[in-house]
Amino acid sequence: MNPSSTLTTEAVNLLKQMIAHPSTSRAEEAVADLLQAYIEQQGLTAHRQGNNIWCLSTHFSAERKTLLLNSHIDTIKPVAAWQRDPFSPTVEDGRLYGLGSNDAGASVVSLLHVFLTLCRKELSYNLVFLASCEEEVSGKNGIESVLPLLPPITFAIVGEPTEMHPAIAEKGLMVIDVTAEGRSGHAARNEGINAIYLAMKDIEWFRTYRFPKESPLLGPVKMTVTAISAGTQHNVVPDRCTFTVDIRSNECYTNEQLFELIKTHITSTPVARSFRLCSSSCPTDHVLVRRAVEMGRKPFGSPTLSDQALMRFPSLKMGPGKSERSHTADEFILISEIEEAIHLYLQLLTPTLNL
Questions:
Q1: What is the pLDDT of residue 292?
Q2: Confidence of residue 230 (pLDDT cuts 50, 70, 90)
Q3: If 0-12 CB within 10 Å is exposed, 13-18 middle and 19+ buried, where does residue 114 land?
Q4: 254: exposed, middle or buried (Cβ count in 10 Å: 0-12, 13-18, 19+)
Q5: Per the CB 3.0–4.6 Å rule, which of 89, 174, 265, 282 could disulfide with 19?
Q6: Spatial CA neighbour of 133 closest among 71, 178, 196
Q7: Residue 244: phi, psi to the nearest 5?
Q8: pLDDT confidence of 5, banded at 50, 70, 90?
Q9: SS (H, E, C) the chain
Q10: Is the distance from CB of 77 to CB of 314 less than 8 angstroms?
Q11: What is the pTM of this model?
Q12: What is the pLDDT of residues 289-312, one digit of tens each?
């Protein structure tokens, strides 16, 4: 058996164990325990903060630049349409079925075994492997709590299902709650100020407005009204209407900039839940992007959010599997995709890589 096949076998066996340990967001203890023990069995030191596990390469030096290999161990809760037991890993026709197999267990085990292969070698750069938690809920106890504990990071590869093509830009997320204030009155008389009608004008603005700066990779900022609430009973003019807007930002604007622009266009009062989930991008001429292109991979912009949103250093998103399988019933990963990922990661991360 060649080394690549051996790594694939080890990675698949570990992924089966991960699937068998439920790891929904904020309840990842069992998988964190599993990964910590697995790394320590390799004779390495596993650091832990909550349910985040990380490890540094053996010859780590503060004089060298540092590459972070990151993916997440948490999953969503299984949807009702599963026909299999989501926590019983099964292999059929080269597919490994199980919750989190595609998003993002395959990336975790592929990156980990690449790290274990490279971490004891003399490299021109440092390596850090990080398996983070709470990614699916953008939780405060996930990667955000760990990054301050790591050495300074020069660049990161974030494992998510991208068919091993590098996502070099990713949309950010800002959720805002908007309130229109009217005045109550009797619906039978011509009195009051209907807050729903006030809100409708602003909702129409969110539906039709286009911010002028568009990204070549990510396209325009996308705003979607996703929830609305108003009224107490049929004969009372509502004095308050609230609605929620999901905003997917591109790298042309910070979330704070978008919020300030929105305030100038609407009459209702917006409140942002957070500004922390930013759009991200990395230079197209970065050495890792160039190497990926030389390997036949195609850079693209990703509409989906990942832990990249919380990184304040350059990164790209690249991992085995397909994004459209994520969060679906009977989720699976092809074993051949894990083998390809390990091969391509090793090809990308040569010991002489100059970050």
A1: 98
A2: very high
A3: buried
A4: middle
A5: 89
A6: 71
A7: -115, 140
A8: confident
A9: CCHHHHHHHHHHHHHHHHHHCCCECCCCHHHHHHHHHHHHHCCCCCEEECCEEEEECCCCCCCCCEEEEEEECCECCCCCCCCCCCCCCEEECCEEECCCHHHHHHHHHHHHHHHHHHCCCCCCCEEEEEEECCCCCCCCCCHHHHHHHCCCCCEEEECCCCCCCCEEEECEEEEEEEEEECECEECCCCCCECHHHHHHHHHHHHHHCCCCCCECCCECCEEEEEEEEECCCCCEECCEEEEEEEEEECCCCCHHHHHHHHHHHCCCEEEECCCCCCCEECCCCCHHHHHHHHCCCCCEEECCCCHHHHCCCCEEECCCCCHHHCCCCCCEEEHHHHHHHHHHHHHHCCCCCCC
A10: no
A11: 0.92
A12: 999 999 999 999 999 999 999 999
Token pair 């292999």 in the structure block, residue: 91
